[in-house]
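Hi Y.,

Following your request, here is the sequence exactly as I used it, all 406 residues.
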Amino acid sequence: MRRFFVSLAVAVAAIMAGVGATSAGAAGKARSAATMSLRAQHVNGRIGAVLSDTPFAVSGVVSAYRRHQFVSIHVFEGGQRIRTVNVPVLRQGSHGVFQLALHVAGVGHLTVHAIHFANRRQPRIVSNFVSVWVVAPAVTPGVRSLAARILQSQLEALHYVVGATGILDSQTQLAVLAFQKMAGLALTAVPDAAVFKALAAGKGAFPIKFPQHGRHVEADLTHQVLALIGADGKVSSLYDMSSGKPSTPTAPGSFSVYSKTPGVNSLGMVDSSYFNGGDAIHGYAEVPPYAASHGCLRVPIPDAPTIYDWLAVGTPVDVYSPLRRCGRPDVAARLEDDERDRALRALLVALVAPGRPRRPSAIGARARRRRRRGHAPAGDGGRSGPSSEGSPSGCGTRPGGADRRP
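Below is the corresponding structure, written out as C-alpha cells. Let me know if you'd prefer a different format.
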C-alpha cells in the first residue's frame, strides 16, 4: 500500500510537470510568434519615391499589443544611420500601431526599419526594411527619372493623359500644359518647382459642370481644356485645347456630335467630329496655349485619334466659359464687367482691322454716351460684327458655316 501511494505521488508530479512545461512552451511560442510590419505612406506608390522637401511617413503594426510599448525606428542613408526615434505604440484592437513623420530636404536613398526590444512581455522583434527614394523636383526632357514617374503619377491621378512611363516626352509636356491652365500657372509646359508644388497642394482638378449629361464632352473656354466625361459622370481624360479666337469665337452652348470625318481634310483638320455647323473637335498642327482657332476645338494631333474613337455620333458636347472670359487667358483675367469686356473686344478687333486703332478709353466713353441716350450698345463696342447679346457666357457668338476654317 505504501508503495502504491509513492507511485501515485510520482505520477501526479509528472503530470503537473508536463502541464507546466506545456504552458511554458505555449507562452514561449506565443512570444516568438509576435511580428511587426512597416510601410511607407505618402510616397509614390510602387516606386517608393518622394520629392525632396516633401513630408512623408512610415507606419507599422505590431501583431500583439502590450501596455507601455515602444519601438525604435532607425533611418539610414547610403548605409549610414542618420536618425533614431523612439515611438510609442498605440492600441488598435488586439494589435499595436505606430507612425513617424519624416521630412528630408536633400536627395538620396533612405532605408527605414523598426525594432521592438525584448522585455518581460514580448521578445525582440525586427520589422521589414522600407526603401524610399528622395528625388529633386526637376525633370529633364527625354531622360528617364524617378521625378518624371512621380510627375506622371500625380498628373494621371487628375486624369491628364501622359506619355511613356518615367520619361518627360512631348505627351507628358502637353499634360503639364493642360495642368498649368487649370491650376492658373504660367503656361510653359515645363514641370518646374511651381508645378510640383501645385500638384502637392491638390490643385488642377477639373470641375465637371454637367454630370447629369452622362457620357459627354466638356470644353472649358476659360481654361482652354477639353474633358471627356464618362457615363458615371466622372472625368475620364483631360486634354490641352485651343478654341476660337476673339474675332471668331467658339459659340457656347450644348450641342452633340452629328458627323465624323476620319483622316486629314483639305484644311489640315485631323479626325474631325462636327458638333455645331462647321465647328468640330479635331487635331491640328498648331495648338497654341490660348484661343486661336476659327471656331473649332483644336487638340494636338497625337491626341486626335483617341478622342475621335471615344466620340460617337450623338455624343453631347457642352461648351462654356465658367468665368465669363474670352480670348487669351492673359487678356481674359482683366475682364471684370461687361463694359470692359466690350471695350477690350473692340480693341482687339481694331488691332487686326485696317486703319488706325481706337483707344480703349474712347471706346468706353462712346459706350457710356450711347447708354445715356437710351441706345443698346452695339456688338464689339460699337463696331459692326457679331453681337454678344444673348450669349450665356458673355463671350459672343458668331454665325456658323461648314466652309469656316478650323
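The first helix runs from residue 2 to 32.

Thanks again,
Q.
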